[in-house]
Known about the structure:
There is one protein chain. The chain has 401 residues and is mainly alpha-helical. Helix content is 70%, strand content 0%. It has 15 helices and no strands. α1 runs parallel beside α11 (263-287), α6 runs parallel beside α15 and α13 (342-352) packs antiparallel against α15 (370-399).
Amino acid sequence: MSNPHAAHQSLWPLRFISVEAFSGIVLLVAAALALAWANSPWSHAYEALWHLSPVPALGPLLPQHDLHFWVNDGLMTVFFLVVGLEIRRELHDGSLSDPRVATLPIIAAIGGVLLPAVIYVAINRDPATRGGWAIPTATDIAFAVGILSLVGRGVPPALRMVLLTLAIIDDIVAILVIAFFYSGGLDYGALLLVAGAVLLVFLMHWLRIRRARFYLLPGALAWYGMLRAGMHPTLAGVILGLLTPATADFGRYRATDPDAVAPVHEVEAMLHPYVAFGIMPLFALANAGVSLAGVDLSAGQPLTVAAGVVAGLVLGKPLGIALAAGAAVGLGLCALPAQVRWAHVWLLGLLGGIGFTMSIFISNLAFAEPALLAAAKFAVLVASALAAIAGLVLGRVLRAP
Length: 401
C-alpha cells in the first residue's frame, strides 16, 4: 500500500521550485511597478501610501510607525523565519550538514563585504564621500533569492542554501556596521529580551508544545528585543527558524505516528506560499519605488560616489566572494557542496551584488547632502540591475546542456 506522506514529500521539491520560479516573476513585476509609480505624475500618492500609520502607538513601548516600517520590519520577519527554517533543515540533513560546507558561505560573505568597501574607498578618497564605504557591502536577500529562482531547475539545490546563509551573514555584518558606524551603537540590555525569548522556546520544546501559534509570544519578544537593541528586528525570524525542531521527536515529545512531519517541514510548507506571493511582492512594491529626481552625475563628488558603489557591487562582490571561497577551499578550511562548481560560486558572487534595499538604506544614513544621496541611490539601482542581469545570464548558461 502506498504511503501518502511519502508521496507528499516526493512532490514537495517540485512544487517548491514551481512556486519559487513564478514568485520571482511576481517580485520583479512588483519592483518595476513601484519604480514606475515613484517616477510618475502620481509619485506623491506612492509616498503617501507608505507613510500611513496602520497600527496605533503603544505608549513608550512602541512608538507609532508607518506602513513602510511594518512591511520591512514586521512582515519581512516571516520571510526571514522561512529562511531560517530552510537553513535549519539543511543543517540537519541537507547540503549544510557538513561543517566544512556550512563554513563556506560565512567566509565567502566576509570576502564579499571587505573587497567592495576597499574598492569604494580607493575610488572615494575625499572625506566628504568616503563615508559611503558600507553602501556596496550589502546584499538584498529577497531579490537575490528571487533572481536565483528565475534560473530554474538547472541550479543545484545546495546553491540556494549557500546563498541564503551567505546573505544572512552579510545582513548581520551590515547591521553591525550600521550600529557601530552610522548610529549610537547597540543597546545590549535589550538583547536580554532576545535571550529570554530563546530560553522560552527551549522550555516550550521540553514541555512538548508543538502548535506553531504558541510560539508567537517568544517570537514577539525576540522581535521587540531586536528592535529596542538597535538591530534589524527581522533577524528574530532567523533565530526562531534555526530553533525549530528538525525531527518529529523533540524535547520530551515522542511522535507516535510513523508519518509524523518534523515542525521545520510543517511550518515551512505552511508559510512558503504566503511569503512567495504576498510578503515578498509587497516588500518589492514598498522599496523599489526610488525617485530618480535630482540625479546629476556631472559634478565630481556625485560621480565618484556612483562609480564606487557600482564598482563595489558589480565587481567587488563577486571577486570578494569567489576569492575568499577559493582561498578557504584551497587551505582545506571549507568544501564546495555536492554538484556545486566554481562557476556556481561566481553566480553567487553576482547575486551578492544585488544590494538594492539594504544598500539604499545605508545610503540614507551615509549622506545628508541631497546630490550625493541621489547619486548613491541611482548607483545602487544601476549596480543591482547589472548584477541581477549578469547573474540571470550566467545561471541560464550553467543550466544549458
